[in-house]
Amino acid sequence: MGEVELEDNVLVIRRIHAVLKLKAAAGHREAAERVHGFYADKCPVYRTLRGAIQITTELVFTPDE
Question: How many alpha carbons lie under 13 Å from residue 4 in its C-beta half-sphere?
């Protein structure tokens, strides 16, 4: 999901919110939350854009049955 604003009659992306949906065994939840806490710093796209666009993420964990 992104939010845009008008700047000099041009739409500009200001914010991006990514919802990461993960379906996995319940025993993997702690590892998934730990990785979610640091993965962005290892992501080339995030590191390229973070100075220009506010980027947030949310982890939605669904236990696999």
Answer: 8
* Number of other CB atoms surrounding residue 25 within 10 Å: 9
Q: What is the mean pLDDT of each run of 10 residues along the chain (65 residues)?
A: 92 94 96 95 93 94 88
Torsion of the alpha carbons at 19, 21, 59 and 5, rounded to the nearest 10: 0
pTM value is 0.76
Q: Is residue 47 part of a domain?
A: yes
* Structural domain count, the chain: 1
For 23, the domain range is 16-63
Q: Is position 5 within any domain?
A: no
